[in-house]
Each structure stands twice: as C-alpha cells, then as structure tokens.
Amino acid sequence: MLSALKVKLTYSIKLNTIQALKLSELKQDELGQWRRTHYSYEVNVSLTGREVIVMGWVSTIRDHGNTQFIVVRDRYSDVQVVAKKSECTEQVFEQIRQLREHTTLAVRGKVRSQQKAANGAEVIPLELKIFSIAKKAAPFLVQSKTLSVGIDTRLNLRAVDLRRNVLQSVFHIRHTTLNTIRDFLVKQGFIEINTPKMIATATEGGATLFPIFYYDREAFLAQSPQLYKEQLTMAFENVFEIGPIFRAEPSRTNRHLSEATSIDVEQAFVDYNDIMSLLERMISHIVDSIKEKNSNDLDCLGLELPNINLPFPRHSYSNLINKLQAIGETIKWGDDLSPQIMKNLPDETMNAFYFITDWPTAVKPFYVKPKSVGSERLCESFDLMYRSLEISSGSTRINRKDDLLERMRKQGLNTQAFDYHLRVFDYGVPPHAGFGVGLERLLMALTAIENIRDVTLYPRDIDRLTP
Ligand code: AMO
Fold first, then answer.
1. How many structural domains is the chain composed of?
2. In this structure, which residue's CA is closest to atom 12 in ligand 1?
3. At a CB cut-off of 8 Å and minimum separation 6, what does 94 contact?
C-alpha cells in the first residue's frame, strides 16, 4: 500500500514520506531564522485564522489515532496543538506522532477557536522545527501535584524536575518574594550592598566554617555578611544584602543547607524593637504581594495564604522555658529551643509567625548587645519563628569597642584575628540593629513545603555537591 501511495505523491511529498519512515531518527533542526511570534497566553480567539509560531517543550501528548493533541509549554503557560490527519501534511502528522514529552520544538501553525482549549484557541500545525529530542521518558510527570518521586531522583535531573507545575509555582513565589523585599527595603531608605564571600574569620561560631585555600593562606566561605553589614552602617546607615551564606552543617535535616540565601538587613540609630517592626512589616508586604501576583501559583499548590495581623506575637525566651517546664519538658534556662520541643507547646499564637525575644546572652554570637546593667545575662535579640521553624534571627549590636572586646574574650575568641573589624570601632560606629532571614526557610513557610531542598534550585548538603 505504501508503494501505491508513493506513486500518487508529488516529488516533495515523496521525500517527506521517506523522511517520515525514518522518523525513529527524528531530524533535529536549527533555530535558523524562526522566531517565536506569540507566547502561549497570547494565542487566543482574537488570532483566529492567523499564522503563529509558538515555541516551548512538549508537556503532554494524547494520541487518538487520526487526531493527536500535544500541549506545548513555554515560560508562561500552555498552548494546545491539534494535528488531524485530514488537516496537516503527512510529515507533520508523523513528526507529531513520534514526539515524546520534554522535546523542545517550534510549531508554525494556524490559530483556530476552540472553547475547550486554554484561552479558547488552539493551533493547527503547518510545520515543525524540532530543536532537541527528548530521548528518555522522565521519571516524573510534569502535571503531578505531589512531590512523591524520591527527592534524589528528582534532584539528579533538577532542571527537568523544575519544569514540573508545583516547582514552577514555588519559584515564581520565590521571585515575587525577592522583588518585594528589594522594593520594600529600597522604599524604606535602604541601599543594596554585596560583601566578600571569602573571609578571614568566623562570625557565627567556628564549627560550621568551610575552609578554603586563599593563595598561601587558609580562609573561609562566609557564614554571614554580619561584620561587613555592621561596618557599612557607618557609611550608609541602612543597608541590605541578598546573597549566599555557607554553613558546614553536619546534620541531615529538612531545614539545613550548606549553601543558603540570606536576606541581611542592618540599620543605624535603631534597636531590636524597631528592627522587629521592620521585619514583620516586610513579611506582611511579601504575603500581600504573593496574594496579588501569584494567585495561579497558590491554586497550583492548593494554598490559601492567611491574613497577616501585625504586630506578630512576642514571647520572651524565659517565658517559653517556664511554659515548657510547666508541661513537663526536661529543659532548663540556657538550653536551645529545638523545633522538636517547640512543637509540644500548645499555644495558638505559635501557629503562624511569632517572635522569641530576649535570649540568654551566652547562646548568642559576640556582636549581640546584652541588656542594660543588672540584666546582662539576657540580650537584645530575637528569633522570628513560623510554627516550630526558625526563619530569622536579629538583635541590637554592640557598637562600642571595649564592650565588643569583652564579649569576644568571654566567648574565648582570638581578638587579634578580628583586628580588621575592631579597628573601625575607633571611628564612631553608630548604634545599630539588624536581622538575617533565611530565604529558603521563609519559602518553606510561605509554600507549606516541608523539605528545604524543594525550595532551592540546586541544593547543597552534606551528601550533595552536584548538579
Ligand atoms: P543565624 O545564624 O540565625 O543568624 O542565621 C539567620 C537565618 O539564616 C537561616 N539559616 C539557614 N538556612 C538554611 N540552612 C542553614 N544551614 C542555615 N543557617 C541559617 C535561618 C536563620 O534564622 N548574622 C546573623 C543574623 C543577624 O543577626 O543579622 C545570623 O547569621 O533562617
């Protein structure tokens, strides 16, 4: 039958048929002069009868024999391409028949109105350019709403995994979060800074440092921009940085990364109460913007963000210790408040964002300012929590050299190693306060995702250094 058909075909169609027969080796095309004319969301009824070029990757395929449906996805959404045997060339029909999900292509075709399709329109294909053939079926479905496939399987193919709807939504929300933070802080009179990531000394305690070779010396990856952001309040008063922090966390938990993103804020002439107020307003702005800009993403994640009431509840550390002791927990003043123990507190105000304030001075880093004379065993510090997850910590800082030296000695630090920092304190460091928010932790709270690796593009942990 094939040979009978061949006789009837023109020379060019003959060629196409021969190509079609070899489609197990589907030809891959160059981009050449083809350019996208419309994004998926722009293909609507108003274009009916017009020719368009859409580009993207194949997210789903349905083969109904004489009609094939493919959904082409681009950075915004989907467009349906419908190939009916009676409506397109044999070559196009055959090409589409052999496509696999994830193949990247361009479709030149005519727009037809179709009530059932997104935006009420679909594309009838006239010609295809196949840029990159997917050679294997991915071990997960892009439509899947759950993250049920093993995280390692997904992370090993992370860029493919990130094509999945749920993760697209998570990272759209991340994008809104970052933009809102920048916008909010700039409007509050902050200037964006970047500080060195190769540094000489620890700021948050020595245990979690990553040592590196720095020419002929040992250096470390920065655990935090702490000392630099503090110094810069001398020159700019209000500064913020969004950048990586590196922590050699030995434990395997769902909330620790070896490389995280920190939103660091530092402000002159304020104390920790002012800074808590700034931070809660920032969080409230973020939630409002996500509600406004990411309603589709929230739908995809099945989330409804709660209304934020300000101010956030504030619980002092000592008070929580008393409460924990009252419910029979074996914890004493001075111990850390672990997530496991915090989960046991039957307090409704801890079901969302809240602050834990006034921590013991001894458990906080050397730069945190103790409370006034007589109550120095407490310091002007806070953690911002979301349920049992720590999102941020902050404090009023010590701005006088003698006080700083004393705190460093008490913590057994080699003060000479901090000479580069201490010397600026001879020139009038203003009173100042600030906080650091872990962006990934904040995203866990905002998206209800329980594993920090899922809100990180390429997570780093004790077991993972690739991709
Ligand atoms: P801290 O060490 O509490 O404070 O860190 C601030 C916030 O950063 C996040 N974070 C992490 N996120 C993921 N993985 C990690 N390994 C990790 N470590 C920290 C948390 C935490 O609340 N210099 C101070 C901040 C300041 O006072 O301005 C600091 O680094 O969300």
1. 2
2. 438
3. 20, 23
Kindly state whether residues 322 and 427 are assigned to the same domain. Answer: yes
Say yes or no: CB of residue 169 within 6 Å of ligand 1. no
Per this entry, what is the length of the chain? 467
Cα separation, 156 vs 159, in Å, equals 9
What the block records as the tokens of 209 is 């440092």
Q: Position of tokens 């075909």?
A: 9
Distance of CA 227 from the midpoint of ligand 1 (Å): 14
Out of 233, 245, 385, give the residue to mutate to test ligand 1, the one with the largest number of ligand atoms within 8 Å of its CB. 245
Can you state the percent helix, strand and coil of the chain, rounding each to 5? Answer: 35, 25, 40
**Residue 198, C-beta contacts closer than 8 angstroms, at least 6 positions apart:** 212, 214, 219, 220, 221, 222
Torsional class of 399: left (φ above 0), alpha (ψ -120 to 50), beta (otherwise): alpha
- What pLDDT, in 10s, does the model give residues 415-446? 999 999 999 999 999 999 999 999 999 999 99
Report the separation in Å between the CA atom of 284 and the middle of ligand 1, taken as the mean of its atom positions. Answer: 20
pLDDT reading at 127 higher than 70: yes
- Whether residue 287 is found in the same domain as residue 353: yes
Question: Which domain CATH number covers 101?
Answer: 2.40.50.140
pLDDT, tens digit (0-9, with 9 covering 90-100), for 238-256: 999 999 999 999 989 999 9
Domain residue limits at 271:
159-455
- Assigned domain for 264 exists: yes
Per residue in 295-317, pLDDT tens?
999 999 999 998 999 999 999 99
Distance 441 CA to ligand 1 centre (A): 9
Q: Would you say residue 116 lies in a domain? A: yes
Closest atom of ligand 1 to CA, residue 262: 8
pLDDT tens per residue, range 134-163: 998 888 888 777 666 889 999 999 999 999
256 lines ligand 1 (CB under 6 A): yes
Quick one: 116 and 206 in the same domain? no
Residue at 235 is within a domain: yes
